Each structure stands twice: as structure tokens, then as C-alpha cells.
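Technical note accompanying the year-one report. For the benefit of new consortium partners, we illustrate the data format agreed upon in the data management plan: each record pairs a sequence with a C-alpha cell string. No post-processing was applied to the example shown here.
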Amino acid sequence: MTKKDGKAAGKKNSQLVLRLDKGERDAFVDLCKEMDTSAAREIRRFIREFMKENADR
């Protein structure tokens, strides 16, 4: 990978802040752990799929 601004290419460099009900957030994180994945990975997957499904808009 090449370096740009001191960071490796492809590295995530932006955040999306969400406000969620604590119980809902905790249940989501727990389910992700049970499924051997992370909440962040699943949210990124959702965003990519959503964008792909709606790309023609």
C-alpha cells in the first residue's frame, strides 16, 4: 500500500455518529459478537449494500 498524508491507503478516515437507544445498541453489539462479527463491520456492510441497491437514483 502507498502512503498518503502518513496513513496507509484504504484506511478508514471518517466517522458517522449515530444516536441509538442503549438497549437496542447493546442488543445489536451482542448479536454481532454471537455471530463473530463487529457492529462497525455490519453497519459498513449495510451502507455499501444500500448504496449499491439505490445507485440508479
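Partners are asked to follow this layout when depositing records. The mean pLDDT is 89.
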